[in-house]
Write a structure and sequence with these properties.
Length: about 140
């Protein structure tokens, strides 16, 4: 279950990034098709939120498991600070922005939706544990690599 959730979380990142880029383009190009893409993006982002909440609460390094004895302080440990604080907070903000953007699309305010999506994209790119990030925090491009 834990591994399946982690793999899904990894793959869904690519789905969200692709949908986000498509929706972003459609927002600034004022394409009607943004109505469905922004909905799919929001569904994918909310699914990611649920999986992420499961991981940070009940996952293999989740809060319910507690901090290991070797880690006396959360904020002084780069791994736990990233996965319990930085990554969840930045991603939740990005998901809120994606949700707000969907509301703007429904109100036919495509330009504002575009700016909200651009900020969400920046937050997500900053918060993903890319393979080139610091050792410990970094993760693979795809599951099982
Ligand atoms: C757009 C939103 C998100 C993206 C793109 C994203 C992306 C990722 C990626 C690529 C990983 C590494 C997966 C792997 O090791 O194969 C990861 C891990 C993780 N994410 Fe997210 N994430 C998002 C939202 C969230 C949220 C909202 C939470 C918590 C509320 C969260 C909590 C976690 C945790 C705890 C891990 C580490 C899990 C483990 O190693 O067991 N994520 N995330």
């Amino acid at each position: 279950m834990e591994t399946g959730m982690l793999h899904l979380h990894n793959v869904l990142r690519w789905v969200i990034l692709i949908l986000l880029l498509v929706t972003l383009y459609q927002a600034f190009a004022k394409k009607e098709s943004i109505r469905s893409s922004s909905l799919w993006l929001m569904i994918a982002a909310h699914t990611m939120l649920l999986i992420g909440l499961y991981q940070v609460i009940a996952g293999r390094f989740g809060i319910l498991k507690g901090l290991p004895e070797s880690v006396p302080s959360l904020m002084k440990d780069s791994f736990y600070r990233f996965y319990w604080v930085e990554h969840p907070i930045l991603m939740v903000v990005a998901i809120v922005l994606i949700t707000l953007a969907r509301g703007k699309v429904k109100a036919l305010n495509y330009k504002t939706a575009g700016w909200l999506l651009l900020i969400a994209l920046i937050f997500i790119l900053v918060a993903i544990p890319w393979p080139f990030r610091e050792v410990g925090v970094n993760r693979a491009w795809f599951p099982g690599m």
